[in-house]
Amino acid sequence: xxxxxxxxxxxxxxxxxxxxxxxxxxxxxxxxxxxxxxxxxxxxxxxxxxxxxxxxxxxxxxxxxxxxxxxxxxxxxxxxxxxxxxxxxxxxxxxxxxxxxxxxxxxxxxxxxxxxxxxxxxxxxxxxxxxxxxxxxxxxxxxxxxxxxxxxxxxxxxxxxxxxxxxxxxxxxxxxxxxxxxxxxxxxxxxxxxxxxxxxxxxxxxxxxxxxxxxxxxxxxxxxxxxxxxxxxxxxxxxxxxxxxxxxxxxxxxxxxxxxxxxxxxxxxxxxxxxxxxxxxxxxxxxxxxxxxxxxxxxxxxxxxxxxxxxx
Length: 312
Known about the structure:
The chain contains 15 helices and no strands. By secondary structure, it is mainly alpha-helical. The two termini are 19 Å apart. InterPro entries: AA-Vitamin_Transporters, EamA_dom, EmrE-like. Its main location: membrane. Keywords: Membrane, Transmembrane, Transmembrane helix.
């Protein structure tokens, strides 16, 4: 039973990353008619409404302190992460951002060690991290003429990686409350939307019904809102609940791999030989970082005070 639960956790993380790795196509199409904050607000508003339809039960918190954790999750994983990533893309190359964002698992491991009492990142995890980062760099830069250093954009990308690590750590704390994963995710979306409001008020936010109802735009918005937001955040949070923040975050290494493969399949882009080698390196790094002994896993659970299902 325990093994089946773990398999489900890995499957949830894998499905999430498979979808997240393809969202760039929809976002690229929508950016022709929408601003980044408009896309962000619409997709998470859609996701929030869908989660209400799927599970229309109000979440009754047992303590006011828990509300702060949900607010922190909404601020980090919904509002700040995506805003920092989108702003970074305006200052630096997408390849730079792709590589830098992929360091999030390292920060997640450090945060888990410091704040959740988890294991200190070991040689196996760090070796896998280095190998995966080398593979990601090959994938991202093989099509670029040269590596471009843009301090502001790159710093913002690092900040986004740190923020996502914080979100993953907070999500593990939230899962320990024992609420239904859809209710918890919906509450996080609510706070994410609230924290977007100041940015919306400060920007030229204009959305017309005609824009949204265009078949091409509606299809891409539904994919982002229902698939990449409502479904994926639920499956990601489920993965964190079962596997923990460190093991789940390692799947982020796969995003550039999926992006490269889908670019070849959907957009007909050629995959250079260096990228093929980079994909193999990234997969090897993922497997190395994920491979931890049973003894260590049990020790980690005791250290966090959490059971296998993420409850006290």
